[in-house]
Amino acid sequence: MTAPAAAADRTALEWARARSAGPLREAPGTPAPPALTRLVEPDASAVWLVAVPAEAAGPGALDELGLTGPVVEQPNDTARLLACVVRCCWADVSGPAWPGVPAGWDTVLSVFRHYAERDEGAFTRAATAAVRRLAGAGWVLWDSPARQVRLGPRVVSWSAADLTVLRELCRQMPAPSVGASA
What we know:
Elements: H1 3-21, E1 24-26, E2 36-40, E3 47-51, H2 59-64, H3 75-89, E4 103-104, H4 105-112, H5 120-136, E5 140-143, E6 148-151, H6 160-172
Antiparallel strand pairs: 1-3, 2-3, 4-6, 5-6
């Protein structure tokens, strides 16, 4: 096998691995294989390897790569909770979204409450289910025992246009409640 063919095989294997498992958490010294983006945790304890398609990749190319958006239960609650996490964890919206800052769960819920009016039991179930779905897909990092959430490695796949829209969304969303625990 020639060197270019071996490199292409390795790239295809790494893409398949990242597609099947989502963002890959690896040891700190792990280099990024071709076609994957390497993100270092803020404390340098690990790196994330994330498959990021080119910004120009259209629906056909994404479908070929197996990267079409999954059908999500309760997509409205999930999208709203992700927006609330972005609002609480993207400390400097003029900078990059990754890695963001950790936010207390109560802080995120104080924002989510503005978009999910329902009784307390249903509200808690909806928020918990949404954060679990987002964590499972790598959009957020959820530390259940500490009750903290942070933006996940998949946010690196957001294009410049996506970030512009998210910046405006953050400006329009309510700030977390003053009394919410951090």
